[in-house]
Each structure stands twice: as C-alpha cells, then as structure tokens.
Structure to design on (338 residues):
C-alpha cells in the first residue's frame, strides 16, 4: 500500500499535525507529483475552518502545488516522469459534460477540488491529480515562487481572457493583498491603465511598484466618487462588505464589476445603477487548464511573480498564524522538508 504523508487538521480550527494516509493504486489517467513547494491561500484557511460548509476531515490543505512528476498512469497524455508541473484548485473533472468538452473544465458540476471531497492537498510529500489538471511549468518561471499563480494568479488573470479586456481599457483593482497585488501586475502587463484601491496609506507606494498608475483610498467615499465613470473593469479581490452602490458609479457605460473575493454577506445592488449605463456584475472561479497554462506563459514572458514569504512545511502552523494575523506580504509558500 502506497502512503502519503501530509499536514492535516482533524477538526475545524485545529492545529495541523503530520499524518500518513493510504493511497490506492494510481489510476490510468492520474499523475503523482512529488511536492517541492505549496502556496498557502486564504481558501485553505476557509476550508480548514469549514467556513463554506463542505470540508471533510481530516483535511490536508494546499492547492498551489509545484513539484515533479514521479509516476503516471497508463492513459496519461503529454506528460512524463521528471517534468516540473503545477496543480491548482481543481485536481479533476468529469471530462464529458458540455463544460469540459468546450474547454471550461473549471465550471464542471463534478469538478473535484484538490482539497475537498476527501482528496488530499499539497501540504504533503505527494499529491495526485488527473493529467488534464497537471500543468507543465515554463522553464523560465521560478518554481520556488510560482505556486500562488496556480490559484491566486489564475483567479485574477481569467477575467482578462473571459471578458475581452483590451490594452486600451482602464482597470481598477480593489484590495492590495494576495490576489490584488497579482491583479495589478497582470493588468499593467496587459497594457491597461491601472488604478489600485486600498484602505492603507502604507500600501500606496507599494501598489505603484506592483503596476498601479493611480491609487485611491477606498475608505473615503469622496475619493471614490472622483473616479466616477472611469473603469471598464473593476476587479474586486476583497472578501468583506463594501459600499457597492458607490463603487458601481465608478464604472463606465458597459463597465463590469467582477468579484473574485469570496464575500460571504449578500451584496445589495441598486438595479437602477446597473440599468443606466448598461453595467454588469459578475464573478468567476479560478480557470480552466488551458487558461492556467496561458497565464503561466504570460507570467513567464512578462516576469510576473507573486511577492512571497517562505516557511518550511514543518512550520505550517506558524505560517498559518502569520496569515491569520494579517502579516503575510503577500503570499506564503511552504517548502517541502519531509
């Protein structure tokens, strides 16, 4: 019997402890990856705490995995042992529904999240995934910092693909954190005029280094209203309630407010703010395998990397405390040390 070692929580908000779990024989279409690095995402914390109500315990979190293939099933296509790859939020999908066959695997109703449904994630020595969801890493991308691109990166990059964002567009990024700082980098490299919204005066200069041409203090309604009729896309990366009605006023006609932060509270939206100006509100989850591969190539070409802090994986509880305390700047990567 093959065993996987991983750092697991056995109940909500419990400290992670090292456990061993039995793994079945490798499936014909599955890939086994030796974990080298794994990012910590706020979604890992939400799953650990069962904030979304579908966590199965014990849970081994981690869905921003970088590693090397050590075994492949007999029906795996296009991958080989020894290849460096990444695995993100999803590790499988049905492969036969309308969404899968049209290349929108991330919208599959049977998509298997890497850290849900009893599947074990990347705070481990090894991880398994269906070959479609195992994405080759470009050679000129730094493996030690690339992990957060597999979730945070694709989350903010996918809207640029999905909504035909043009280099002539003006993009606002709301929140300069784990998602937002990558949103600024991608928007700038895409060629857009970029405005950062932040509640912290301390982040103004940093936001500009990440690619913002302009910075607005989002706690000040008057400052927000100075940007009325400015944005083709307003990318919301925060997970807290905001003054949505005022923010809608910053959109141009046909503008879109796109939500990628998991705001748990209902969002009150005045219908008239949408009707006049033909504005839209939307949201999206990560991205398809093809979109992830495109994002990685774009990041490699434009030297886009997350700003990361490293912890040994054996210090995962300290790393999680660092995230909970709001001290992460701006993503945390665990380095495997089994």
């Amino acid at each position: 019997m093959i065993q996987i070692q991983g750092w697991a929580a056995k109940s909500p908000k419990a400290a992670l402890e090292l456990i061993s779990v039995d793994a079945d024989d490798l499936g014909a279409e599955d890939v086994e990856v030796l974990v080298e690095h794994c990012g910590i995402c706020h979604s890992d914390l939400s799953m650990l705490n069962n904030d979304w109500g579908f966590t199965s315990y014990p849970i081994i979190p981690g869905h921003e995995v970088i590693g090397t293939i050590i075994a492949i099933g007999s029906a795996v296509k296009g991958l080989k042992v020894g290849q460096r790859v990444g695995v993100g939020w999803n590790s499988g999908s049905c492969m036969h529904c309308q969404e899968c066959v049209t290349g929108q695997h991330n919208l599959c109703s049977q998509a298997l999240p890497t850290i849900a449904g009893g599947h074990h994630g990347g705070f481990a020595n090894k991880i398994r995934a269906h070959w479609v969801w195992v994405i080759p890493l470009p050679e000129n991308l730094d493996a030690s910092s690339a992990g957060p691109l597999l979730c945070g990166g694709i989350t903010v990059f996918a809207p640029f693909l999905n909504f035909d964002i043009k280099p002539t567009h003006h993009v606002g990024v709301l929140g300069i954190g784990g998602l937002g700082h990558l949103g600024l980098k991608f928007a700038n490299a895409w060629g857009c005029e970029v405005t950062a919204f932040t509640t912290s005066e301390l982040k103004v200069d940093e936001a500009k280094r990440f690619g913002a041409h302009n910075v607005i203090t989002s706690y000040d309604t008057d400052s927000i209203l100075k940007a009325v009729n400015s944005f083709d896309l307003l990318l919301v990366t925060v997970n807290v309630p905001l003054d949505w009605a005022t923010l809608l006023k910053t959109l141009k006609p046909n503008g879109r407010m796109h939500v990628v932060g998991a705001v748990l509270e209902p969002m009150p939206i005045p219908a008239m703010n949408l009707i006049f100006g033909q504005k839209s509100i939307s949201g999206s989850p990560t991205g398809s395998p093809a979109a992830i591969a495109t994002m990685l190539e774009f990041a490699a070409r434009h030297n886009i990397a997350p700003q990361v802090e490293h912890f040994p994986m054996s210090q995962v509880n300290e790393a999680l405390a660092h995230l909970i305390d709001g001290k992460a700047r701006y993503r945390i990567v665990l380095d495997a040390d089994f």
About this structure: The domain at 153-283 is CATH 3.40.50.720 (Rossmann fold). The longest strand covers residues 30-40.
